[in-house]
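#struct-help
A.M.: can someone run this one for me? Single chain, 169 residues.
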Amino acid sequence: MRHGKKINHLGRKKAHRMAMLANMACSLIEHKRINTTVAKAKALKQFVEPLITKSKAENNQSVEKGTHNRRIVFKNLRDKYAVTELFSAVSEKVADRPGGYTRIIKLGTRLGDNADMAMIELVDFNEVYNAGKPKKKSTRRSRRGSGAQSETPPVAVAETEVKSDDSEE
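D.P.: on it. Structure tokens below:
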């Protein structure tokens, strides 16, 4: 039975699993997409998305909390170049996204051992999927109709002379 087993151990001890996930997360941040097995991709998604959220929160907070978030992320990744890339380029791209920073696309099976393969990528860095969709503006509308009227300025109607048949005589 599988009661209470929330973590996929991936056939490794904890230290080996954490080191592997840290290395895969650094590769994902550096290359923006990597190919791996489906199980490792799902484990990596759970590992890297909270780190991206912490990098995104630095822009909205004071310097002290930003430094604290940077130290927490460095504790997990253990690569200062990946942390710098995460807090600069990646956090700017995902600033308006409320979550779901990664996408897993299944690729089929591996030729050698028939393992299910997947590509995990950062969503905002894929130009193919994002090119067709125009960026929507999120607007908040109230139930009252008066808010919509006050936002749009009244249109000035130009008066034009209309010649009638009577004026020609």
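A.M.: thanks! The first strand starts at residue 33 and ends at 37.
D.P.: also worth noting: The beta strands are 33-37, 102-109, 116-122.
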